[in-house]
């Protein structure tokens, strides 16, 4: 759910832009391999939103690095993935990830880097 929250906040920031061209001019914009053009926003996933959000100054270097880890760990909500990777997430892990999520959320809500 924390990864979903971050993605929702990044989508909201993108939707706040009156000029979406800024998103599509970013060096980290996701490219459709079939057309070699930027993907439509509806096809972006959390990874590209993190990269572009960082490039546009919405989140710091540290927040980007930690958001990538949070993105990777969000799929451990599926028991089979957790079992097959021999990962056991604890309550303490969830508390730590929640603190990280709140910090990144505050950066996104601060509207810094609004260009």
List keywords for this structure.
59% helix, globular, mainly alpha, 115 residues, 6 helices
End-to-end Cα distance, whole Å, is 29 Å
Number of helices: 6
Q: How are helices and strands ordered from N to C?
A: HHHHHH
Low-pLDDT sequence parts: none
Number of strands: 0
Helix content: 55-70%
The gross shape turns out to be globular
Number of domains: 1
Characterize the structure shown.
The protein contains six helices and no strands. It is an all-alpha fold. Helix 1 packs parallel to helix 6.
In short, what is this structure?
With 115 residues, this protein is mainly alpha-helical.
Break the fold down into its secondary structure elements and pairings:
Blueprint: H1 2-16, H2 21-24, H3 46-55, H4 61-74, H5 79-84, H6 91-109
């Amino acid at each position: 759910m924390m990864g979903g929250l971050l993605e929702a906040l990044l989508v909201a920031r993108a939707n706040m832009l009156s000029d979406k061209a800024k998103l599509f001019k970013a060096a980290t914009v996701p490219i459709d391999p079939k057309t070699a053009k930027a993907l439509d926003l509806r096809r972006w996933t959390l990874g590209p939103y993190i990269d572009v959000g960082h490039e546009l100054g919405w989140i710091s270097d540290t927040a980007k690095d930690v958001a990538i880890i949070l993105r990777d760990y969000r799929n451990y909500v599926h028991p089979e993935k957790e079992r097959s990777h021999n990962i056991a997430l604890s309550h303490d892990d969830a508390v730590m990830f929640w603190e990280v999520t709140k910090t990144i959320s505050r950066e996104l809500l601060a509207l810094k880097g609004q260009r």
